[in-house]
Write a structure and sequence with these properties.
By secondary structure, the protein is α+β, with helices and mostly antiparallel strands. It is 31% helix and 41% strand.
Length: 138
């Protein structure tokens, strides 16, 4: 793995509200961040997403399981561990990262299944989603 991606992964794995102030050392000023809930551009908008994460979740943390990097692109497989209303939760997913010529993230696209990993845990909605899933299965 390229050394710059190693640095970025260390930043994600050690991310805290205090270390969020160093976001400009990882993201380009006009970077794009996309996940199942957000599609934003620019450091202030990306920083707000992480701030919201720390405000609404208990002890959120990323654990990177693997990274495949080539040139200025990488795909990172991760676990996102957090608490929600006292309940431990884990979301598994991956991130496509693309760097600019200065080694800063210009594209961060998260891929994870919000229906299976989040919505199915909501009492009424979860039951409906699981029923639909069973009916669509072969």
């Amino acid at each position: 793995m390229k050394p710059r991606f190693e640095e970025i992964i260390r930043w994600f794995e050690s991310l805290t509200p205090a270390s969020l102030t160093a976001i400009a050392s990882c993201y380009a000023p006009q970077a794009r961040f996309k996940d199942p809930f957000n599609d934003v551009r620019g450091l202030p908008a990306i920083e707000r997403i992480y701030q919201h994460m720390f405000e609404t979740l208990e002890q959120p943390r990323f654990v990177v399981e693997s990274c495949i990097a080539e040139a200025e692109r990488a795909f990172v497989v991760w676990r996102f561990e957090f608490g929600l209303r006292g309940r431990a939760m884990v979301i598994r997913g991956g991130s496509q990262l693309e760097l600019d010529s200065q080694g800063l993230i210009v594209l961060h696209h998260d891929y994870w299944d919000a229906a299976e990993q989040l919505y199915e845990h909501v009492p009424v909605l979860g039951a409906v989603l699981r029923m639909i899933k069973r009916r669509l299965a072969i």
